[in-house]
């Protein structure tokens, strides 16, 4: 039930958030085209992530999927909340992020240790949440992770 509540709120809020709050341009790169990047690149790994979960890139929200790839955080509801904690620890601030953290903590108090761990991992990394990832798609994923000290949540 609690996952349903958060997923419903997300579906209701996604389009207005994309339209009124996200000022960046959509990438317009299909998932299959990302697989044409070198196999060690961020672009290739992003393409694999999208195809693995049968996702299409969400216009103006592409960075969200990049964050999943870089942090190796999954897509379950508690993991989505944990990713927001990771980004909060990394310095990202937005009304949307704060709302997810608030509602996620309220609805998933049994995952508070996971959320704390994610927050700490975000603090330990150099700020990466603000990068223009479309320009980094050809870069080796390990180079990005090592440069910014991005460690997987499950390590």
Question: What keywords describe this structure?
Answer:
single chain; 155 residues; mainly alpha; 0% strand
Written account of the structure:
The structure is a single chain. The protein is mainly α and 155 residues long. The chain has one domain. Helix content is 59%, strand content 0%. It contains 8 helices and no strands. The protein is globular. It starts with a helix and ends in an 8-residue tail after the last helix.
Quick rundown:
The protein contains 8 helices and no strands.
What is the overall shape? globular
Task: Characterize the main sheet.
Answer: none
Mean pLDDT: 89
Number of strands: 0
Extract low-pLDDT stretches: none
How many domains comprise the coordinates? 1
Counting H and I runs of at least 4 residues, what is the number of helices?
A: 8
> What's the helical proportion of residues?
55-70%
| Structural class by helix and strand composition | mainly alpha
Instruction: Give the H and E element order.
Output: HHHHHHHH
How far apart the termini lie comes to: 30 Å
- How much is the radius of gyration in Å? 15 Å
User: How large a portion of the residues is in β-strands, by DSSP E?
Assistant: under 5%
Which helices and strands appear, and what pairs or packs with what?
Elements: H1 2-21, H2 31-34, H3 42-52, H4 62-71, H5 77-89, H6 95-107, H7 112-124, H8 141-147
């Amino acid at each position: 039930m609690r996952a349903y509540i958060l997923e419903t709120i997300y579906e209701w809020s996604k389009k207005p958030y994309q339209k009124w709050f996200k000022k960046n341009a959509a990438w317009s790169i299909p998932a299959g085209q990302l697989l044409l990047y070198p196999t060690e690149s961020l672009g290739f790994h992003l393409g694999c992530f999208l195809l693995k979960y049968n996702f299409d890139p969400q216009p103006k929200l592409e960075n969200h999927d990049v964050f999943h790839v870089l942090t190796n955080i999954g897509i379950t509801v508690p993991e989505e909340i944990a990713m927001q904690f990771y980004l909060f620890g990394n310095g990202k601030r937005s009304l949307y992020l704060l709302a997810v953290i608030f509602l996620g903590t309220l609805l998933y108090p049994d995952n508070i240790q996971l959320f704390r761990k994610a927050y700490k991992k975000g603090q330990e990394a150099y700020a990466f949440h603000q990068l223009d990832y479309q320009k980094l798609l050809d870069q080796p994923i390990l180079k990005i992770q090592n440069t910014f000290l991005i460690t997987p949540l499950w390590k």
